[in-house]
Design brief:
3 helices, binds zinc ion, alpha+beta, 5-stranded mixed beta sheet
Amino acid sequence: MLSEIAPPRFDVDLDLRYATPDNLTGAPIYARPLCLLHADAVPYLERAVALAQGLGLRLRLFDGFRPVEAQWCLWRALPDPLYIADPRRGSNHSRGTALDLTLAGADGVALEMGTGFDAMTPLSHHGRSDLPPEVQRHRALLAGLMAGAGWQPYPFEWWHYQIPGAETYPLLADSAGGGKMMAK
Ligand SMILES: [Zn+2]
């Protein structure tokens, strides 16, 4: 039900922040840098990859499937439901139907998006007209190609997209993805 998203099958860059200390909790949550998506989301990803390729760009993925256990780690670090789904209600990441990502150029450099991934500030919201034009253009590129591939945006995070009906899929624990969490 969950598919691993990695080259060479998928022409994407992986920058899986929850397998590193470079995330909002300041510590790795995943022991293994594994990106998984629900099989139903894979065609959406493939369309987005193709659209990016046509523009000379690559998708750079920050996170896909996020076990319910990992959602609890994020919630404990930042219990703000605007940015972090309450684990009791469930994140679409924990259903394998959401993806966090940015774009990188052919030179391998990520496009400037105005804030980092997981920057939980109003500047991360869509529809900002007060960011530099280049940043607005980059966000519009990402939003346009993701929409063209059928993904739906989340208004408060420029990096987060999900498939239609994302919330209708069941929440999954770490064991559903073969286990990638840090041992506690
Ligand atoms: Zn997300």
